[in-house]
Amino acid sequence: MGAHTSRDRGKGAIRKDGGHGEAGQACPRHAQGADEGPLHHLPPPLAEAVARCRARAENEPAPRHFRACRPGGGGRAAFQVSQRSKETIPGPRGGILARHLTAYEADPAGFLDDCRRRYGDVFRFDTGVVVVTDPDLVAEVLARTNRDSVPNANPLQGGRFPTAEQTRRWMDARQLAAPTLRSAALPARLPAVRGALAADLDALDGTWFDPSEVCWAICVRALLPLYLPDESPALVDAVLASFDAARDTAEAAVRVPSWMPSRLRRRVRDADQRVRDTIVPMLGDGAPAGTDTMLGHIRSQPGAVPGDIAMGAMGFTLLGAIGTMGAAWCWILYYLAAHPEVADRVREEATAAPDVSGDPARALPYTWAFAQEVLRARPPAWLLGRDAVTSVTLGDVEVPAGTAIMFSPYLLHHDERWWPDDPQRFAPERWLGAGRPHAPGAYLPFASGPRGCLGSHLGLAVLALTAAHIATRKRLEVPGLDAVTTYFGPSTLTPSGMRARLTPR
Ligand code: HEM
């Protein structure tokens, strides 16, 4: 936390007037140049609220009245909360955390699930923070992103909203990046992705490793063939440094007013600058870059692409992928080890498939279903949110402008109301039927709407190729599986306490 005091945290957390960030940067979450961390790794307001409460609780421990329950496991909270609140949004007076921090920290998803049983599908969590657990309402919020709301503001910006110009430029960068990342363009580059994955997995042979330590580098190297025709250790290092800095920011879960000098911000800024310094010369280089890579695609545009938009497509989309990709990659290993019968089926399918990398969705339907199920059971982005820039109506609840509207893909994915076939069970086959195995909008590992994931098909492909390679070529050992726990981090969901070893089969 460095020099930040508890009083600094949360002050001026959400602006209600639309903010005044500086224009000219591609990604609104990177507004003001290098001051912001990459996408995905920003602490949601809920994490900040927890950090705020934790700071208060250092002097005055919270009463432990709350009995957390497992998601979907029934059971009611045993605590007494005043129901006399005059607030229109259901929830206890003063927010939930003030009295139940320990319970929240012990089981964040169970706690939220208990709250929704108690207060309904839209409830007030903390000052200026509501949680929505109904898929239709979540879909509505997501569909109206960039109009009624923006993705949660960056805490290193003191919670400033992006300007309309910043959002427009980021949307231009997204549009520029989309053709390289979307499914139709993938077959040309997937063999290279598969080669990079195989090389990294082979390099691990015989070593005990913690997946949550190696996954980030493996994912950057696996995605790089989509961006560049050749390897670039300099870019891999720069991206990983930037990712690390952003992850530490997320873990710190503090809002830093934009005027305040901060070591954390300087580290993020320097790391971002290194990414820029590595990419900019590539963009300017006249040599051909292979049109099926992001770099080649950018260079082949008629007319000059503005630097910030090229940088957005080339750098920020890659940075945006790592946290979620890496976390999902860890869970692939976990579930292969936890369900040997599933691993056997993946192996049989991959062994029989003539070519697994052209389009793994077609060539490996069961393995694809396995990857989808892993993302259902453990969605890396377990908690997401939008900041309302105007007042919005959610069902029969009025949410004022400036409110952070949070939703949890994890909760949606484990809610029996939306999943008729026991959502607590790990069952890849649920994805093999003709229809969708869930209510509309209840499967959200990639969010949705104008700010949803650009790399969903690519992400699933990397996961399926990883699973196929391990199942066919490796013997996977994960001792003490029962002791592996789920870390509900401020930005992603990762396995904690997991050790694995791969040996050639
Ligand atoms: C299994 C892997 C992945 C998962 C689970 C995942 C998940 C997500 C989620 C949940 C969001 C929405 C965040 C929000 O609404 O605030 C998102 C956005 C995004 N993702 Fe992914 N992602 C994955 C892989 C990738 C890959 C491979 C790429 C590109 C190489 C990518 C690039 C992006 C970008 C550019 C955004 C857009 C953010 C914006 O417009 O603000 N993701 N992803």
Automatic annotation (TrEMBL):
Keyword Cytoplasm in record: no
Signal peptide: none
GO molecular function: heme binding; iron ion binding; monooxygenase activity; oxidoreductase activity, acting on paired donors, with incorporation or reduction of molecular oxygen
Cofactor: heme
Chain ranges passing through the membrane: 309-337
Key words of the record: Heme, Iron, Membrane, Metal-binding, Transmembrane, Transmembrane helix
InterPro entries xrefs: Cyt_P450, Cyt_P450_E_grp-IV, Cyt_P450_sf, Cytochrome_P450_monoxygenase
Protein residues bound to heme: 453
Compositionally biased intervals (Basic and acidic residues): 1-20
Chain intervals for the UniProt region annotation (Disordered): 1-44, 61-93
Gene3D superfamilies given in the database record: Cytochrome P450 (1.10.630.10)
Similarity-based family: Belongs to the cytochrome P450 family.
Protein name: Cytochrome P450
